[in-house]
Write a structure and sequence with these properties.
alpha/beta; 5-stranded parallel sheet; two-stranded antiparallel sheet
Length: 357
């Protein structure tokens, strides 16, 4: 009967629709980037002692490592401290399970470095950079060349290599994300291409969770995989992104921060504001890293007088005001805060001395 034919036709159409759906090309899963970034922030807080701005920046940098090909440049992470056992290596170990194609190394040859980057374009996690730059001059200069050139997508390092017994010139593509950890500041040309993460030893009251690779791997690798899938479906959008940049940043700093601001815009849900605040705070700190400590001290004292409107400030109050500056080094000078004796030694080369009034 006609009705039975209609029912059979509907059932057949349902079957066909199911078959068509099953045969469709794989569709990428939709990931909530804001949620993924929060997972990275939570991971960092568990295992490493960092402040809020630092965790914000590092989470955005981790996402950028999965999509760095979308950008004209890649900001480096300069992970530094004034003393050992400040968590630098631990941070790199955690990042190894979050970034794209991680390559954690403390010592490699110049040839291996440029060959590895050209072949795989990994995220380079370079530990003990202070030692690397103090090694033989040839290696130090080669490392500096890779880092200087690898900041830009067009970055190339030219070397002569032997091919069939003949020397020929070859351009190596060294563009890739890089985090560089060590005591003290990087060479100026590398520092200018970096976002500075200054770390310190934990106080007795500050505790972080012990990092065990065997336990962390099953927790962190799913985040790493989800970030990779997110990046694969968002590269095109990131290529055309033109985020608003804080005007407080210099032109070089704006170039450095642009990829992270684009990713923050893509995440939404408060991340643009968090990225903006972190950029201003950390870039301000980085801009003065190259200044001598004495010049920085004079500048901060001047700011305190201007902000308070006072013409006289007692030494203890001046010391307390300096220590209270969040992005200044005065709260942690080789493990101790600034005191009146250190202040006097810093100022004795200038015509500045306390008076009784």
């Amino acid at each position: 009967p006609y009705k039975g034919d209609a029912v059979q036709a509907v059932e057949s159409s349902v079957d066909i629709a199911a078959l068509i759906a099953a045969a469709r090309p794989w569709q990428p899963q939709q990931f909530d980037l804001a949620d993924l970034l929060e997972k990275v922030v939570g991971t960092l807080r568990r295992f490493v002692l960092l402040n809020e701005h630092q965790t914000t920046v590092i989470a955005l940098w981790v996402a950028h490592c999965h999509a760095f090909e979308a950008f004209e440049s890649t900001p480096y992470l300069s992970v530094s401290s004034v003393e050992k056992q400040s968590g630098k290596t631990r941070l790199l170990e955690v990042l190894e399970f979050l970034v794209s194609k991680p390559w954690l190394t403390a010592r490699t040859s110049a040839a291996a470095l440029k060959n590895k980057i050209e072949a795989d374009h990994p995220t380079v996690l370079l530990d003990e950079s202070d030692t690397a730059f103090k090694l033989d001059k040839e290696y130090s200069e080669a490392l500096r060349g890779v880092l200087n050139a690898g900041y830009r997508r067009r970055g190339r390092l030219s070397n002569s290599i032997k091919v069939n017994g003949n020397w020929v010139n070859k351009d190596f593509s060294v563009f890739s994300p890089k985090a560089i950890a060590g005591i003290g500041q990087l060479p100026d040309t590398v520092h200018d291409r970096s976002i500075s993460i200054v770390m310190r030893r934990a106080a007795p009251s500050e505790k972080v969770e012990a990092f065990k690779e065997r336990d962390a791997r099953p927790e962190l690798e799913p985040i790493q995989a989800e970030l990779a899938e997110w990046a694969e479906s968002h590269v095109v959008a990131l290529e055309v992104a033109r985020p608003d940049m804080p005007q407080e940043l210099s032109d070089r700093a704006q170039d450095t921060w642009e990829p992270l601001m684009a990713i923050a815009d893509s995440a939404g849900e408060g991340w643009p504001r968090r990225a903006w605040e972190a950029a201003v705070a950390l870039a301000s700190q980085s801009a003065t890293d190259a200044d001598s400590l004495r010049v920085r001290l004079l500048r901060d004292i001047k700011d305190i007088f201007e902000n308070t409107g006072f013409i006289r400030i007692p030494t203890p109050a001046q010391v307390a005001a300096l220590v209270d500056i969040d992005v200044a080094p005065w709260g942690d000078l080789k493990g101790k805060p600034l005191d009146k004796h250190f202040l006097a030694r810093m100022l004795r080369n200038y015509p500045v001395k306390p008076t009784i009034w």
